[in-house]
Amino acid sequence: MAEVVFKEVAKRYGDVSVIEGLNLEIRDHEFMVLVGPSGCGKSTALRMIAGLEEISDGTISIGTRVVNEVAPKDRDIAMVFQSYALYPHMTVRENLEFGLKIRKMARADIDRLVSEAAEILGIEHLLDRKPKQLSGGQRQRVAVGRAITRKPSVFLFDEPLSNLDAKLRVQMRAEIGKLQSRLKTTTVYVTHDQVEAMTMGHRIAVMKDGKLQQVGTPLEVYERPANTFVASFIGTPPMNFLKASLKDDGATLQAGTFTLPVPESQRSLTAGRDGKAIVVGIRAENLSDGSRPTRGETARIPATVEIAEPLGHEVLVYARVGGDDMVVAKVDPHRAPSVDQKIELVVELESLHLFDAATETRLAA
Ligand SMILES: Nc1ncnc2c1ncn2[C@@H]1O[C@H](COP(=O)(O)OP(=O)(O)OP(=O)(O)O)[C@@H](O)[C@H]1O
Ligand SMILES: [Mg+2]
User: Fold this and answer.
1) What pTM did the predictor assign?
2) pLDDT confidence of 41, banded at 50, 70, 90?
3) Distance 213 CA to ligand 2 centre (A)
4) CA distance readout (Å), 181 to 134, 208, 238, 294, 365
5) Do the domain assignments include residue 365?
6) Which residues lie at CB < 5 A from ion ligand 2?
7) Are residues 78 and 202 both part of a single domain?
8) Is 202 found in the same domain as 101?
């Protein structure tokens, strides 16, 4: 078992900087998800752990050992890619055995490891088939099986579920989560899908443009996003943002044509900062038309309904507030307002997120 530590890691291709100053500790036994939009450097970070990309600056260690100069095959890792990269001319059994044979393992040990992995993944009945005789989900299991048989210190996954249909993806996401909690192998899992990140990770690391934005448990990141990027990237629908400025010694947010009181618990962050430009973040579930029960202190904003999207268990209402700003609110499906209706949106004040408009970072003491 092993932890994986990035220290001041950078990756450059010629003059192009792809990752900068990356500091990240993945603990022993941890399931860490690297998440971020396309091109933010997730795969590059993973491939540097695997030794498939050189590290331009800084160090990566696995366990107690700095691995910058260690060959991929000596890093004690196993990687599962988006394209499963199974050998097409080999049976499932041969695919599972391949890495072990190369390491010249004894026949009896190979048989034991292969049948263990096949049992864990429920693919015993497929061992004599070739990859082309398998469904996408079955191929994916074989690819994971190949990683398991090697009993590595670290599993590396790069978007392993993105070739599967939506339903299978949900099922495999749960299976990989269960597998990791059974084997307890340190895991680094890359995805651009924030739902996958939230549901699978013990902790998630959010990246943007090659820079780490925030690391924390899914709930920490959801409840206290460090900046507006994380706030809008994590959670669906994305967080609403309203421009405002502080007045009344930080007790009031003036946003266009309406005001909101700053909740008592956040006054220490806003006091003495009158005139400061703030981005107010409100999640759709903290905004309703009063048809759902609310928590804590609330305030009301006049709004005009533009679109109502019924989702069955709830309706997403897109409404115009304070002139030109659009916000989305979650309302009771049985009492949804109609298009063009004038309503009052109810804001749960304790759930307001306040960001400095200049730096886009969360207001902090
Ligand atoms: N060999 C290369 N030469 C130059 N730039 C590269 C090279 N490989 C990758 N990049 C750039 O590095 C950046 C990060 O790429 P990376 O593959 O790590 O992104 P990603 O976060 O995994 O994205 P995706 O979600 O699309 O897989 C991208 O802007 C990409 O164009
Ligand atoms: Mg990638």
Assistant:
1) 0.92
2) very high
3) 17
4) 26, 28, 30, 36, 37
5) no
6) 43
7) yes
8) yes
Predicted confidence band of residue 1 (pLDDT cuts 50, 70, 90): low
Mean pLDDT for the chain?
A: 93
49/179 same-domain check: yes
What residues does ligand 1 touch, defined as CB less than 6 Å away? 13, 16, 18, 36, 38-44, 192
Q: Please check whether residues 85 and 228 belong to one and the same domain.
A: yes
Long-range contacts at 208-212 (CB < 8 A, ≥ 24 apart): 208/36, 208/37, 208/40, 208/233, 209/40, 209/41, 210/11, 210/17, 210/18, 210/19, 210/20, 210/22, 210/40, 210/41, 211/19, 211/20, 211/21, 211/22, 212/22, 212/23, 212/24
Tell me, yes or no, whether 151 and 266 share the same domain. Answer: no
Please give the number of the atom of ligand 1 that sits closest to the Cα of 36.
21
Residue 32 exposed, middle or buried by CB count within 10 Å (0-12, 13-18, 19+): buried
> What average pLDDT does this structure show over 83-100?
90
Q: Does position 8 have pLDDT exceeding 90, yes or no?
A: yes
Residues 175, 244, single domain; the answer is no
What is the extent of the structural domain holding 192? 4-233
Q: Count of domains in the chain?
A: 2
Which residues, in sequence order, are bridge partners of residue 317? 308, 329
Is 218 inside any structural domain? yes
List the CATH number of the domain containing 253: 2.40.50.140
